[in-house]
Write a structure and sequence with these properties.
By secondary structure, the protein is α/β, with parallel strands linked by helices. The protein is built from 13 helices and eleven strands. Strand 1 and strand 2 form a beta hairpin. Helix 7 runs parallel beside helix 13. The chain is elongated, with a radius of gyration of 38 Å. The termini are far apart.
């Protein structure tokens, strides 16, 4: 076999076929691209058309479209609290917070949201502030004359009604002219000549939670009475804010309750096992914790001092001290007798046990019914929880239209049976005329 024949054997022929196939593939791809031509360029006008033709782009349901030039504006579609739109996709602000940055292009602009006009302000418009609870209730309540109890500040503590003690402590006293604290610091805006049924509410636990205390003072009507917790650290500040709003205040006296010692009213509580001198010393400590209040609430929050207050030999001397100092006594035990040795009143209804919306509303209705039957009624809430403040404000907003007067506690108290309790009577006698039936 010659050298020329060896060079043109089967191996060389296979290699030639391979390169021929490669050449044909390259020519085919190049020809196809040339036939298709360059891709179309989408301009800003086309982007606007796409945004206008997006699914759901109608009144009230439009979705804003954003080119790659910047973050998309907030759409008008519904959003949930987790920052997602109606389709369940994260909103642009949520994606940016998660670290996803939008891509940018040098020649693209941001497309305005549907319905955008020149001079329409920022997008999206800021959400309005929620109205106060009392305003919401007033809108839903029937048209009526304005409620009694517009804010009229209560004067600051009067030095003439304070007794200076050693160590700088001060205790309430009856003034040289016979004035008492429950008259000097009474809610002045209430019409004592009003003959409608009177309903009064005391909210206790004031001062323990700064936020709950502030909301109660701000949202509740001035005719509501507040009971200060003696263990609160900023008691004077809470009392001053309440007086600025024209709200009467009491100070709560912790007493031994039926669940003691499992339910502990604190180290300043009046106890059945303590001596009379020790209990009166603890009472002085409580009274010195504030000034400018009209009286005392027997009990602390949900602890109503049942075990101590049921013993006349223990509660009687306490009432004697309060009477001698020109203070009221509010007994927190529904169904208990009214105070017999001091000006005061026993609570008719506990409003927040349990502190649920439905139960609070039911008990407020019961309180209003009792006021119509008896001429006056007194309710007590142990804590200014948000749900209590909300429902109480809404209920109180409609009282005037229903023919019931919201009254401070000084307008529903009773005269003591004991002739030993002297001092000036509360303004207006303290009790609605129809209340004499009980």
């Amino acid at each position: 076999m010659s050298a020329a024949r060896r060079r043109t054997g089967p191996g060389w022929r296979a290699l030639g076929v391979f390169w021929g196939v490669v050449a044909l593939l390259v020519l085919g791809v190049t020809g196809g691209l040339a036939w298709l031509g360059p891709p179309p360029v989408v301009g800003s006008a086309a982007v606007g058309e796409i945004a206008g033709a997006a699914p759901g782009a109608g009144a009230g349901g439009a979705r804003a479209f954003s080119p790659v030039g910047g973050p998309a504006p907030f759409a008008e579609a519904p959003q949930d609290a987790a920052g997602r739109d109606g389709a369940g996709a994260p909103l642009p602000a949520t994606r940016e917070a998660a670290g996803e940055r939008p891509r940018t292009a040098p020649d693209a602009g941001t497309v305005s949201p549907p319905g955008d006009r020149a001079g329409a302000g920022t997008w999206p418009p800021p959400a309005p502030e929620p109205p106060p609870l009392a305003s919401v209730a007033a809108v839903s309540a029937p048209a009526a004359r304005p409620m009694q109890g517009a804010p009229r500040p209560i004067p600051p503590p009067d030095p003439a009604l304070l007794e200076e003690r050693a160590g700088g402590t001060r205790l309430p006293r009856i003034g040289p002219d016979g004035r008492t604290s429950f008259r000097a610091y009474a809610h002045a805006a209430f019409d004592r000549a009003d003959t409608r049924p009177r309903v009064a509410v005391v909210v206790a636990g004031i001062g323990l939670s700064a936020s709950n205390t502030e909301e109660a003072i701000r949202r509740l009507p001035p005719a509501v009475t507040l009971a200060l917790n003696p263990y609160a650290q900023r008691l004077g500040q809470a009392a001053e804010r309440a007086r600025e709003r024209g709200m009467e205040t009491l100070i709560a006296v912790p007493m031994e309750s039926s669940g003691y010692p499992l339910t502990d009213p604190g180290d300043r509580a009046l106890l059945t096992g303590a001596s009379l001198a020790e209990n009166l010393h603890r009472l002085d400590w409580v009274l010195a914790r504030g000034a400018g209040y009209v009286g005392v609430l027997g009990g602390l929050g949900p602890l109503r001092g049942e075990r101590f207050a049921q013993l006349a030999e223990l509660l009687g001397p306490v009432q004697d001290v309060l009477c001698a100092r020109g203070l009221l006594y509010v007994d927190a035990r529904p169904g208990a007798p009214h105070p017999s040795r001091a000006w005061g009143r026993t609570v008719d209804v506990i409003l927040d046990e349990p502190a649920t919306r439905g139960e609070i509303e039911r008990r407020l209705g019961e309180l209003e019914r009792l006021a119509r039957e008896r001429g006056s009624a007194l309710g007590l809430a142990g804590d200014p929880a948000p749900v209590l403040v909300e429902r109480l404000a809404a209920w109180a907003a409609g009282l005037d239209a229903r023919g019931v007067a919201l009254a401070p506690v000084t307008a529903v108290i009773r005269r003591p049976a004991s002739a030993r309790c002297e001092g000036e009577a509360p303004p207006g006698g303290g009790v609605a005329p129809a209340a004499a039936r009980r």
